[in-house]
Automatic annotation (TrEMBL):
Belongs to the acetokinase family. The keyword Cell inner membrane does not apply. It catalyses: acetate + ATP = acetyl phosphate + ADP. It is found in: Cytoplasm. NCBIfam families: ackA (TIGR00016). This is Acetate kinase. Pathway: Metabolic intermediate biosynthesis; acetyl-CoA biosynthesis; acetyl-CoA from acetate: step 1/2. Mg(2+). Can also accept Mn(2+). HAMAP family: Acetate_kinase. Substrate binds at residue 98. The active site is at residue 155. The lineage of its organism: Bacteria, Bacillati, Cyanobacteriota, Cyanophyceae, Oscillatoriophycideae. The gene is ackA.
């Protein structure tokens, strides 16, 4: 079975082709073909990078007439040119799409139909940056492969089992009736990391209490008990929760009321402020990138140090909240760009939980571990660094259809 995966973001489009000979395979496979389009560096230019398992590579810059044209060119490299991996598109059996928001209707991966497309478009009001581009990828495939099955793998689905006390906000009950509730995000990543953690530990996932820390430009925690999400930090939107690269995370809503009363702020300006100019970027004035924050700290930048201090404080507080939801902890997981690559963040986060017997192996933490336990042998809690593989998790979901 050949599975094409499209993982669309607001400024990039990633795609992979997997071949599953055993549809029950749990271990990540190397893609036969990988491609990425980046729209961030030059206006009206798409930067395309492609590589194959056979070692072929391609880099191109495309004049962006449209995102769909760029996506078509990306897919064309599958069956044409030096990165050709298949003879024709009919070899593709199924296409999987990461879709950020599935709302209350879609609580598991779903075969895409006109009704599902309509729902994805309607739910764009909750995820305006992501759902429209997710839909764009679906429609691009419809034009190229009109008869292939397409699957929507929802980022919110992993959190669908949250208890009402967890997902209902303490505002007017009408909020809930209008779909305003906690949904949670990064579900595909949290789901993959939980399953991978069980493999690394040689334990049954159903017996584990895990806290998964997805720390990238966007950040969220998930408390996972018995293999399901029982609590998470992101909520109605991906803005809630931890301090992030350029997002504020949770703040006193009275701040918004105060600003609206005393300034000319519009909804658009607020959105830009909280989603794009807050977090590490807003406090440091340097960058949303943790690597640049750490570099600025080494040069004596006090605002960068403050940004890191706030980030760690809120990360520790979030882990504490997830710990309370689980009633104990078997393993703490770090994943995504910061989680996988910042020993400073991992060490600082773990330091606060020494009281419960968590002991970090400092040397191992510094050695760029991947899919490894970095706790000491006598630690009461395992500390895992896991390379998240959302595209593979999407492929696994597709293999069920």
């Amino acid at each position: 079975m050949k599975i094409l995966v499209l993982n669309a973001g607001s400024s990039s489009q990633k795609s992979c082709l997997y071949e599953l000979k055993d549809v029950q395979s749990d271990r990540p496979l190397q893609p036969l073909w990988e491609a990425k389009i980046d729209w961030t560096h030059q206006q009206n230019v798409s930067e395309l990078k492609v590589q194959t398992a056979a070692g072929s590579q391609l880099e191109e810059e495309l004049a962006s007439e449209s995102r769909q044209a760029a996506i078509y060119r990306m897919l064309e490299t599958l069956w044409k040119g030096k990165t050709q991996t298949i003879n024709n598109l009919n070899e593709i059996d199924i296409v999987g799409h990461r879709v950020v928001h599935g709302g209350q209707e879609y609580q598991q991966s779903t075969l895409i139909s006109p009704d599902v497309k309509e729902a994805i478009a309607r739910l764009a009001v909750f995820a305006p940056v992501h759902n429209p581009v997710n839909l764009e990828g679906i429609e691009a495939i419809e034009k190229i492969l009109p008869n292939v099955r397409q699957i929507a793998v929802f980022d919110t689905a992993f959190h669908a089992g949250l208890a009402p006390a967890t997902f209902v906000y303490p505002g007017p009950y009408e909020w809930l009736e209008n779909g305003i509730r906690r949904y949670g995000f990064h579900g595909i990543s949290h789901q993959y990391c939980a399953r991978r953690a069980a493999e690394i530990l040689g334990r049954d996932l159903a017996d584990l209490r895990l806290i998964s820390c997805h720390l990238g430009n966007g950040c969220s925690l998930a408390a996972i008990g018995g293999g399901v999400s029982v609590d998470t930090t992101m909520g109605f939107t991906p803005l809630e929760g931890l301090m992030m690269g350029s997002r504020s995370g949770s703040i006193d809503p009275g701040i918004i009321i105060h600003l609206l009363k005393r300034s000319d702020l519009t909804a658009e300006k607020l959105d830009n402020m909280l989603n794009r100019n807050s977090g590490l970027k807003g406090i440091s004035g340097v960058s949303a990138d943790m690597r640049q924050i750490v570099e600025a700290i080494s040069q004596g930048n006090e605002r960068a140090q403050l940004a890191l201090d706030i980030y760690i404080h809120r990360l520790r507080a979030g882990i504490g909240a997830m710990l309370a939801s689980l009633g104990g902890l078997d393993a703490l997981i770090f994943t995504a760009g910061v989680g996988e690559n910042s020993p400073i963040v991992r060490a600082a986060a773990c330091e606060a939980f020494r009281f419960m017997g968590l002991k970090l192996d400092g040397d191992h933490n510094l050695q760029s571990p991947i899919d490894a336990d970095i706790a000491t042998a006598d630690s009461a809690v395992k500390v895992l660094v896991i390379h998240t593989q959302e595209d593979w998790e999407i492929a696994r979901e597709c293999s069920k259809f």
